[in-house]
Write a structure and sequence with these properties.
This protein is an alpha/beta fold. It has 27 helices and 39 strands. It has five domains: about 25-190, Aminopeptidase (3-Layer(aba) Sandwich), CATH 3.40.630; about 335-495, Succinyl-CoA synthetase domains (Rossmann fold), CATH 3.40.50.261; about 500-640, Rossmann fold, CATH 3.40.50.261; about 650-695 and about 770-895, ATP-grasp fold, B domain (D-amino Acid Aminotransferase, Chain A, domain 1, 2-Layer Sandwich), CATH 3.30.470; about 695-770, ATP-grasp fold, A domain (Dna Ligase, domain 1), CATH 3.30.1490. The chain is about 35% helix and about 25% strand. Strand 15 and strand 16 form a beta hairpin. Helix 12 packs parallel to helix 13.
Length: about 900
Amino acid sequence: MNDDVDPAAAEEPSTSPRPEPYPDHWESDVVLRDGRTCHIRPVRPDDGPALTAFSEALSEETLYTRFFTASRELAAQDMARLLVADNKNRVSLLAMNGGEVIGVAVYDAVGRAEGEIAFTIADRHQSRGLGSVLLEHLAAIARENGIHRFKAEVLSGNRRMLNTFEAAGYTPSQQIEDGIVVLDFDIDPTHRTRRVARGREHRAEALSIKKLVAPKSVAVICDQAGEGSLGASIVNNLVSGGYRGHIYAVSPEGQAVDGVAGFQSLAEIGEPVDLAVMAMSGSAVENAVDDCAEAGVTGIIVTTGGFISGGDSTRQKMLALRIREKGIRLVGPNSLGLINTEPVLTLNASVVPIMPGRGRVGVFSQTAAFGTAILSQAAQRGVGVSLFFSAGNRADVSANDLLQYWEDDQSTSLVLLYLESIGNPRKFTRIARRLARRKPVVAVRSGRSSQALPLGHAVRSTELEATAVDAMFEQAGVIQVNTLTELLDLAGLLAFQPLPRGGAVGFVTDSDSLGVLAVDAATSLGLQPVGDARITDPAHHMDGFEKAVSEVLADPAVDSVIVTHVPSIHESSDALSAVMTKLAKAATKPLIAVMLANRSGPLVGELTTYGMPGHGSVPVFGDVEAALRALRSVVDYQAWLASPRGTIPTWSDVDSKRGHDVVHAAVEKMESPQVRAELSADDLDTILASYGIHLWPAIPVVTEDEAVAAAEAIGYPVVLKSLIERYEHRTDLGGLRLTLENERSVRTAFLSMMATLPPDASSKLAIQQMAPPGVACVAGTTEDPLFGPVVSFRLGGLYPTLLEDTCFRIPPLTNEDAKALVRAPKASAMLLNELLPDGQRSAELDVAALEDLLARLGHLADDLPEVAELELNPIVVHQKGVAVLGAKGWVARPLARTDLEARRLL
């Protein structure tokens, strides 16, 4: 699915009359149970003829199970009723395939928060999972409209529809009246409904890619098939790569290519075609889509561009929509193609004349140049590939689809990604987090610091800083690197060596100075060298070298071993390689070779059946620093794997509905041009309290006597503070007076602040109870256009802000996510009862209460997309809990999130 395209950017431009306002964000493409796609959208006033054709094609059995009678007149009346939808009290959804309605779902609001639902699926499209997909989308829309329960009436004999609700993870109550089952169930998301929906999403998307990368027949469709043409090159690559399926060349002349039969059209072939590779102009691609659908094509690779004009990607979006609506997946435009080295297939359906060796590394690349470079360097280093996939502008198929596929692919044990943009990072991190628990995922992300987007990538831009995006990858267990060289460095280490248990490193070297350098470099990267490097000379004493490496490998204190060697000009490395291979095959720890003065080269190891190095081969680096950087990344990955997964907490004191009501009311009060509005103190207090976050009251005061009265009402000691942002947390600017223990100190502080602060700051003062001694922190949430909700955390004060010591996570937060977020800032030692640089130990604080607060904050952010920004400042963590002393919040009309509760190809 195109998880990398903005849902608001992927809708179909149309001149058709639509209900006002038309909810564009409800439109989506989905993959069904059989791996093919369809388009889901709200009904439009001009859908009457299509709905009539749909109802007239229904069998009597389908009519009876839906309407409890076989009356076509009743069906026609119902189709007419569907057209009268206001997208609030009545919502009608259509499932479309090539302009044909293949499924219908509707709800009618009854009461304030309940809707009656009904589904009808075309006979030949039943058993494809359409009912469950429509239910997910209808439920998501209903929740958006304030509806939280569904009712449905189903014939007792209609087991298929009854099973649809239960299989979706809902627990409907049932009443039977005259052979009709009345179902009633809550549609708010639960762990079970999410687990079911994501399991279905995974199976469908993985199947769609499996069909795409393992076709039984391939047609290359081109403007011209003459020698030297792009089309002829692709055919040549298919033939020379040894593809075992049927190959067809399609061109206006019907010319044969490299012994492959030529045809003038797909229809002329007379046999089904699974995959079409297009090498022709944009208009020719668009004209060939219908022919592909007629021929039963399940995947189209577009190797050419021309669909973006002056930054306008409308034409590309239209192409993707048109192809997906016909049940076909699109790779590209501007794709290199794909290469599958599976021995029973050996498919090179690409423009790259390189058939990589067979291996266990899956490669995904968006840009053509980078994809070619990966294949070239992988071949030089002896890293074999299971599947290479180039998505180009990835108007449809994206990295998320490939991650779904690789999760189940037994031929792939390591995934390499080159990403130019991510349109659905919430979904990406969700899938990557699951996959990374089973297989390492290594990524190079262009625009990592600038967040720039290449031309043709129709995605939203993030407003987060680069460190926030890095934190999302870290949270998902994705190993990030900066260059292609680093990507291949890690590929050699992860594909062939075991993971280390920890960061303890042993060194064996033939140079004392090089050994010292290696130990220093390891320490600077946070690794732990075990003793000094062992000195040995393999050039003259190979037995001694083997003994030294064996002993270091056997040391229980050592987790990894790095062998550094400076080869002489005329020295042969064969003997050294043989020893390294022998030792690596028996080792349970990573063994890495550094051949100084050589650039990183082929792995050392025995060749497999396919002529490529096998497991246990030793990666060779050209310098110590590169080897240690790769090792450090692997050590961090192992630590992530070893960390508990955690669970998403639940709380008995959370009232999400109350929070929703207050937020929705605040948004409704916003005037039309207003981008966002600050929440009132009462609304903010209610929203926070709905999620179990209690804000300490601050009583505004205008006069000296009011300040004294407020202090006595609250109880001493108190603080007096300015409510103006610049001053309210700043004792150094005179905006905050602490530990006022009696009437006299309150009066003195009030008069002093009135005299010293500017009028705007002194006119807004407040009295608040003094919190117990502790450490001040700041936590917040942001609704990012791309990432959706993000939780941030740092310690309080000016210096953490200046040092950019703010850390981030994507909610919902597990208990382990919250624990990690507390410990992520560099200054977190202040919270954790640890030794500080001055030799003193920090106070023992209730960090568990802080972790709970962050998890609640994540739940709030995940629940309420209308909360554009929220800041809790300060939060004082003390020995018996936390005190939230200040808060600000803003609401806005949010963009549709890229990863909604309902499955979709974004």
